[in-house]
Specification:
Blueprint: H1 3-16, H2 23-30, E1 40-47, E2 52-59, H3 62-68, E3 73-79, H4 88-105, E4 113-118, H5 129-134, H6 141-147, E5 157-161, H7 166-169, H8 173-184, E6 188-197, E7 206-210, H9 229-232, E8 236-246, H10 247-265, H11 271-277, H12 281-296, E9 300-301, H13 306-325, H14 331-338
Parallel strand pairs: 4-5, 4-6, 6-8
Antiparallel strand pairs: 1-2, 2-3, 3-7, 7-8, 8-9
Length: about 350
């Protein structure tokens, strides 16, 4: 087989591959929740008053990484429907919890310099989460250069960049960030990006943070050079929210409900019941993609209220980072900065 045919085959396989940016979904695709997977640890917690679920997926070794098709590391997923609603009281609780979870992945002190990177295209609303969040980050590194080190418990050093996308700059995001890292020499990079989900219910209501870095564009099949500790030479914390799903996921979720109803109607031990019962979730999803692809291609869909939701989500992420990075500041001071 020549190289051109190999590339074509890889493209077809990629189109029909089950793709998700969320470790929690990768874990769900491997097996039932009560089935233990070697090399993978799952811890679940809940904050009941706002119905917030926190799932920690720790991939401990190469076996676990291969099973979930994710790098070794820690993935923390927060799920709450109130994230996308206009509920300031609930948002404050989510902000504080997200800051707490971020503190578990990276400990920031006054001797560190933190670089915040807002990935994505600000002109495309579902992809503008990173740039919008970074616009609300309290940057302070320039103050240290201008006025020197403050006395007592002052501000920590924070810088930020919105690198844009290759169509706007003519450069890979990695090239831009690598140049900045080499010059600024941050202790840690925190990258914010929009993701893709395999569940419509998780769109705009889920935040994932991870200590494994990020691959810009991977959620929509446009994988670029990764921002990782291996590639940049410093730890990279990723923060992401699924803002889109592909068309096959919407059809798949609809079919799931249809199959549930069909199972109720079908008699046990009948041919129809057996046929429905023997279709795995992955087989069903791939079948739907094969049927849809000639008609809609690799289509991704986002809710119609995405403008308002992205504003809320970007404020939640920015507030959490500001609290984590500047512990000497009160929550009211942080919110005033955002107003």
């Amino acid at each position: 087989m020549n190289n051109k045919n190999k590339e074509t085959l890889n493209e077809i396989e990629e189109q029909y591959n089950v793709r998700t940016d969320l470790a929690i979904e990768a874990r769900e695709m491997v097996g039932e929740e009560d089935v233990e997977i070697k090399g993978v640890e799952v811890i679940v917690d809940n904050i009941n008053d706002i119905d917030l679920s926190i799932t920690k997926v720790n991939i401990l070794d190469e076996y676990g990484a291969k099973e979930l098709n994710k790098p070794i590391g820690s993935y923390i997923t927060m799920e709450c429907e109130l994230m996308k609603q206009n509920d300031p009281e609930a948002h404050e609780k989510i902000v504080r919890e997200l800051a707490k979870q971020l503190n578990e992945l990276v400990k920031v002190d006054k001797d560190m310099t933190v670089l915040i990177v807002g990935l994505g295209n600000r002109d495309v609303t579902p992809d503008s989460l990173g740039p919008r969040a970074v616009s609300n980050i309290l940057v302070t590194r320039h103050l240290f250069k201008e006025f020197g080190e403050p006395e007592g418990d002052g501000l920590n050093k924070v810088s930020a960049i919105i690198p844009g996308v290759m169509g706007q700059t003519g450069m890979e995001t990695f090239e831009i960030i690598q140049g900045i890292v080499n010059k600024v020499k941050p202790s840690v990079v925190i990258a914010i990006d929009a993701l893709a989900s395999r569940r419509t219910s998780r769109v705009n209501s889920t935040i994932q943070i991870a200590d494994t870095g990020v691959h810009p564009g991977s959620g929509v099949g446009n994988r670029r050079q990764g921002l990782t500790k291996e590639s940049l030479g410093v730890p990279v914390i990723a923060i992401g929210v699924p803002t889109v799903v592909d068309a096959a996921t919407i059809v798949n979720d609809t079919m799931e409900e249809l199959l549930v109803e069909m199972k109720k109607q079908a008699k046990e031990n009948s041919e129809i019941y057996d046929m429905i019962n023997n279709i795995s979730e992955q087989e069903k999803y791939q079948l739907i993609k094969e049927i849809l692809y000639p008609y809609v291609g690799n289509m991704f869909v986002t809710p119609k209220e995405i403008d308002a939701v992205i504003k809320r989500l970007s404020n939640i992420i920015a507030s959490s980072l500001n609290i984590m990075l500047q512990p000497s500041m009160e929550f009211d001071e942080i919110t005033k900065f955002l107003s």
